[in-house]
Amino acid sequence: MKLFIDSADLSEIKEIASMGILDGCTTNPSLLAKVGRKIETAIPEICEIVDGPVSAEVVSVNYEEILTEGRALAKLHKNVVVKVPLISEGLKAVKTFTKEGIKTNVTLCFSATQALLAAKAGATFISPFLGRIDDTSHEGMELIEQIVTIYQNYDLPTQVLAASIRSPYHVTQAAMVGAHCATIPGSILKQLIKHPLTDIGLEKFLADAKKSAATAK
Ligand code: E4P
Predict the structure, then answer these.
(1) 191 is a domain residue
(2) Ligand 1 pocket, 163 CB below 6 A?
(3) pTM attached to this predicted model
(4) 131: Cβ below 6 Å to ligand 1?
(5) Number of domains in the chain
(6) Nearest CA to ligand 1 atom 4
(7) Residue 201 domain-assigned?
(8) Mutational pocket test of ligand 1: of 129, 161, 167, the residue with most ligand atoms within 8 Å of the beta carbon
(9) Annotated catalytic residue within 14, 34, 38, 83
(10) Given ligand 1 and candidates 6, 7, 170, which is best to mutate, with the most ligand atoms within 8 Å of its CB?
(11) CATH number, position 112
C-alpha cells in the first residue's frame, strides 16, 4: 500500500519524507488554511520535498471554473493531481481532465456508487473518507472494502486512496482490505513506527551490550 501524508505543513512533510517511506501527499483547503498558506505557493514547495503525486484541491463547483482552476493547478508541477469534489460538475470535469492527461483525485466520497461513477469518469484516485463515516456511527472500512471489490470486479484502474484516517488501526485495516493507498496525518504516520515492546527490547539489548563490553573476554 502506498503511504501519502495528509498535510500542508512543510516542516512536518520534510520530517516524514526524511524517513524514506513517503509515496505522495494530499492537501485540502482546510489543511492549507491551518498553516496559513496559499495553494499556488505551497504546492510547488511540497513537490520539491515529496517525489510522488501531490493532490491540490479546486474550490470551484461549476464545470468551467473547475477546469480553469484545475488546469492552473496542474501547471504548478508535473506531479500535481487535481482534487475534485464528488458532484456532477466535478465528474464532468474529471472526464475532461482525463482526456487532457491531467491526473485527478475525486474527494468527499461517502458511497460505493459515487466511487463507481468517479471510476467511470476516469479518476486516477478515489478518496473515501473513512474517519468521517465512523463519526456517524457507520463502519467506514466497509465502504473501502466495497469499492476495492467493485473496482476489482470490473478491472477499473482507479486507485482507492483511503482518506480521513484517524488511527494506526485504520491503516492496518485499509491495507487488509486492499486499498491501494492511504493518506495519513503526520502524527499518525509517526505512531505507526512506535511499539512499547520495541522500546523495552531495545533498552535491554543496549544495556546488555554495555555490560558485556565491560566484562566479556
Ligand atoms: C484527504 O484527501 C482528505 O481531505 C482528508 O483525509 C480529510 O481528513 P479529515 O476527515 O480528517 O478532515
Answers:
(1) no
(2) yes
(3) 0.96
(4) yes
(5) 1
(6) 28
(7) no
(8) 129
(9) 83
(10) 6
(11) 3.20.20.70
Q: Which residue has the cell 468527499?
A: 108
Residue 207 lies in a domain: no
E strand map for the chain: 2-6, 24-26, 54-57, 80-85, 104-109, 125-128, 159-162, 181-184
The parent domain of residue 72 ranges over 2-186
Tens digit of pLDDT at every position of the chain (217 positions): 999 999 999 999 999 999 999 999 999 999 999 999 999 999 999 999 999 999 999 999 999 999 999 999 999 999 999 999 999 999 999 999 999 999 999 999 999 999 999 999 999 999 999 999 999 999 999 999 999 999 999 999 999 999 999 999 999 999 999 999 999 999 999 999 999 999 999 999 999 999 999 888 8
Picking from 216, 152, 213, 148, the residue whose alpha carbon sits closest to that of residue 182 is 148
Is 83 annotated in the active site?
yes
Which residue is listed with cell 502506498? Answer: 2
Global ipTM: 0.98
Q: Within 13 A of 82's CA, how many CA atoms are on the CB side?
A: 29
Amino acid code (one letter) for 191:
Q
Nearest residue by C-alpha to atom 5 in ligand 1: 164
